[in-house]
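I hope you will forgive my troubling you with a question about protein structure. I am sending you one protein, given as its amino acid sequence and as whole-number tokens for its backbone shapes. Thank you for your consideration; the sequence and its tokens are set out here:
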Amino acid sequence: MADIKFYANETSIAGGADATEIKHTSGSGLGFFGGGFGISVPVGQYQDSTFVTNGDGTSSGIRVKNTKWSSASGASPNGGSEVGLSGVPNYYAPLNVRFTHTEAVRVQNCKLRIFDRNDISKQASGVTTKVFESRHPHPVEAHNGQSGTLALRGITGYAWTEFDPTESMSDLDFTPSPGMSGLNTSAADTLPSGIEDGNVNWLTNEGVAHQTTRHDWYVAMSASPDSIGSKTQYGLYFTLEYL
């Protein structure tokens, strides 16, 4: 049996700690705010905090990691200074997308889109969203003279992908067969395997052929309102094929 679930990273989480499930089937999701829950984000600016909340953003759940857009290739994690996207560790990402299956499978054609919660072909209404997939299991932003980003990735380059309500809809490709906790990479990876300085870089290097009962993706997100008012016509869609 196959399943996709969404998890939120709490502020205290680092390394391999379990995340909190977002009950999206009950109307729960991520909400983007200013300096705290219920504080609006100014038009044209990006959020300073992220919370689990209900569909209209009026009920506060846990505060989660915040990845604020700071430049085309950089983010400001949790109010800190800019970090190049290639150096953003997985645990900084506010959202963990998790696919599970009762049998070990590989996954491909993994795609994400931001939409208006009603029609999958329409962009979210009144809000621009930046998205980046973190592929950086090591918790240190840069180490051993490298960014720490795994070689197996859904797209090339290190830049935000923008979902703009004025543009036609398109998908963002995510990594095929990322493995449990995102710890699968390709044989071309130059990072050391296993435990390094007490932390894991990767556990398998089987590339797209990797099969397991669970695959994890880590999603950095940043949102900016294009006009005043709450933006509730806003959803995230994730799809894949498994073999």
